[in-house]
Amino acid sequence: MNESLDYKQFEALCAQLFGTDEVGEHEWRVREVFELFDANADGALNEEELHRCHEWINATVNPVNVLLIVDVQNDFIDGTLALRKCEYGQDGAEVIKPINRLLKYGRWDKVIYSLDWHPEDHISFFENLGKREVHSESKVTKKSAKVFDTVVFSEPHVTQKLWPKHCVMNTWGAELHKDLHVVPSSEKVYKGQHPDKDAYSAFKEKDVDDTSQVEKILLAIGATHLYVCGIAYDVCVKETCLDGLRLGYRLAVIDDCCRGVKADDVKAAKSLIKKNGGLVTCSYNVLSMVNEGKRSLVMAHNAAKTMI
């Protein structure tokens, strides 16, 4: 690389990396990335600043791509918490075909499946409401509570949405759907195993070292790009995306490979993912990215922010 790089040269470099259309649409992102790397704000990237920039470029050009499939389990498709019985009326089974296409044709460095994996006495189950005391500050009382209401428990003192009993560990409802392809080299991670803790995000279940199993898998392979899909869009998929973005991954949610609980909440989830630096895209675009080297300036922009 040159000893220094001004903005026009950096913009031209980004056009080579991401394409002129992408740079034209997101020129403000190019400007912000440049200013992030230009630590002394002198309008040029010096040797030290270029070193950090080179790390960013290297991850852009040499991605390590991971597909994270969230909770495509029987109970969310045909069981006790089937999405089609929820307010939005979406069919969770519709994610299986496009996800299988990604699994068949995508060149993935790793595939991870997350699973809700609850004990019988889990705090989120409406059926277990009688086993715990509701706090006096809870607007919903034990007597008036219904499925999908939110209550405040006394011990532990947590705010909790009440769901029908679902994904009880080692039951049919907790199994991945039979039509979902499971690749031999993949990993499975389990969440919500503690009776008094709910865990929507695949990153939520921490080990004794305060690191999740997902993080360990991603760190072990040097993952740079994370593509997230599954069920439910506005709950576990959303929370997984937000945690992945906070950790600095270049992240995209695959819109046609997700289904949700409530229409308004799905819309809000997409907006929140975008706001926090994620890309909302479709499976065909994802295949172009992982197979043909198409690059996203949106995803790279978030990586630059977290690097600095």
From TrEMBL:
EC number: 3.5.1.19
Pathway: Cofactor biosynthesis; nicotinate biosynthesis; nicotinate from nicotinamide: step 1/1
The organism's place on the tree of life at top rank: Eukaryota
Cross-referenced InterPro entries: EF-hand-dom_pair (IPR011992), EF_Hand_1_Ca_BS (IPR018247), EF_hand_dom (IPR002048), Isochorismatase-like_dom (IPR000868), Isochorismatase-like_sf (IPR036380), Isochorismatase_Nicotinamidase (IPR052347)
Cross-referenced Gene3D superfamilies: EF-hand, Isochorismatase-like
Claim: Oxidoreductase is one of the keywords in the record: no
Molecular-function GO term, any one: nicotinamidase activity
GO annotation terms (biological process): pyridine nucleotide biosynthetic process
Domain EF-hand residue range list: 25-60
Keyword Secreted recorded: no
Keywords: Calcium, Hydrolase, Metal-binding, Pyridine nucleotide biosynthesis
Record family assignment: Belongs to the isochorismatase family.
PANTHER family reported in the protein's UniProt record: LD05707P, PYRAZINAMIDASE/NICOTINAMIDASE
Listed name of the protein: nicotinamidase
Annotated source species: Ooceraea biroi
Upper classification of the organism: Eukaryota, Metazoa, Ecdysozoa, Arthropoda, Hexapoda
